[in-house]
Amino acid sequence: MVLVCFVLDLRNISPYLIGDLKQSFLNLANLHAVSSPVDSLADRIGLCYIQKDRISGNDQLKFAYTPSGNFCLRDFHHAVNSLPTDAFVPEIDESGAVSCGDLKISSVLCDRAMYSWGGRDIMRKVIVLSSCFPEDMDSEARNTLMAAADKCVSVEFLLLDEKASHLSYTQEKTNRFLRCLSDLDNCSFQTCIPDGKSLRGLENKWLQDLKDDSGESLQAQFIFKRNLVGSVNKIFCNLSAATNQIVDGFKPCQTCRCHGIPVRDSVEITTEKMQCSVTNHDLGMHDVIDSSVKVGERTVLFLPSIDSLQKLHPISSQIDFTVIERTNLTSINEGIIIGRPYIVSPSTCHEAEDSSEEMDQPDLNTQIFQGLCGALYSMDQGLVCSSDCNLDTRQVVEFHCYYILQPSENGPMLLRRLAGSEEVLPISSSVSQFAGSSIPREVEISVKGALLEIESTDYNPMTHNRGFHQKLNLIVKESLQFGSLHPNLDDATCEVSSVVSMAQTCIINPPIEEEETRQEIQITDEEDKATASITKEWEQLVVTEVRMKSPSPVLTTPKPNTNRPFLSPNNKQADMKTSMILERLEAPRKMRGKVGSPSIVVTSSQTSPDVSVLSQKKPLIPFQTSQVSNHQTASSSQLMKPSFQRLKRKHK
């Protein structure tokens, strides 16, 4: 992340070149607005210019745009468009060549300007653009540049070499200026022929300086199985993106009049009223500006009307590709191919309103497709097409999308998207330095020998497994060892209810006459929480058999224990916790001792103080005699019905 300040020497830049530079600055601001991170759009662009006062004849430095807070695209456009175009007043020396005066560097690199912009930790860079530079540098300018080096401020001098101009800037003057910068490490010099291609490259280079790519810079190493040179078997590299995809259109939005930022819509706040994003106050109809457009994520512009904006919508019909030109496949740089590739094959059914009678023949379309594919393959060329559809997002967009149609020998063709001029990023300076470098002969021979030892095959994707299925199968296998869990509470409740109904069939209820004379014992636990799990609910609700003394015994005959397959220890579907619950649902062990032997249940009256427990299991909930009312007795063979709600004490 760099704060960049542009200094234009309008005294020596021709008016037609000023127009091209203006457009470059506007393009840079536009890309900066849509390419910045979502959370912030810091203002990191400064613009100033040097002109000669027509009255006094003195050189003046004026600031057109100073960075402060968040970047304002509208204000920057206004500052660029307001640059004077009549300040071209070159100075001619005795030899007839153009000369340059003071560059006002000390007025830019000072506490009142450059050093007061941005924070303390931000890097700063000054770019001086002019058609000529002074042959010598005075002591004040030199001291200023040396002080800038101590503050980590870099200065770049960009010479706009206008070959078509009748004014010439000799190479000798350039060499003299370079000698002045030779001992300054923070200064650099570059020559540029200001044509369309060079200016577009400068835009992308400046954008890289403005872009906060601290989290995107990657370092990598490529490891070989054999040594390349000596004992070295790896190379270290830097990874940088080749393209930067831009937005497909601009979205209309609603903004509040109080702050001028997009409002919170009803979908976001789940209410029918709109709210201010800053104060969260409800907004009325007159408190909202409807004619606003969102550029990127952090820039909002106000328009008189948004009727001219094209709304993005999904593709609803066939996609139209317009063929623009033929291109050699060897000229296509793989770095500018973006998006997902698509296989193109001839369609057997094609219905179009404007199709001719010849196209109605079923085989003609396939024959034309095969002929086109074969002709392009023989010429080693492809077709560049344009469309208003983005195949990656499946939407009709506002900007053009470019594609390359690549042929094959005897098969389908391949459609791939190409980056536009706004999306291509410049090659890093570390890459361009390899052009004139040479390597020792012994290194070249050693590396080539190591490459010949690597197996050479045609790439087959079927033999390069990423390991997806193996890893997922292992995870599922480990999950099966954990046991089965119910996906939701409703399914678990239904399954537990079925277990209760099955368990109740294994217990013989007492005669109806006795049920009418007895009442259930209601045991409540006030400390029980509603958020307890189903297993704990079962453990608290399943009550063991309680037998009480009574002067009139009642005989019950248990049913033979033959229809309980779910209680078998060989059932592998029930886990340990479920087995414990099902075991508590069994009939008392004494009742299962002998088939047909009667069991005596003794009920006590109000005057009987003794209560004996004949069950072999301890109750899960402590039994208290004080909870038995005058009309409540214990049942030896009927379980309490499960209820998964919080138990409440009944007050009579």
From TrEMBL:
Taxonomic lineage: Eukaryota, Viridiplantae, Streptophyta, Embryophyta, Tracheophyta
Q: What is this protein called?
A: Uncharacterized protein
Q: Where is this region: Disordered?
A: 551-572, 624-652
Q: Where is the composition biased (Polar residues)?
A: 553-572, 624-640
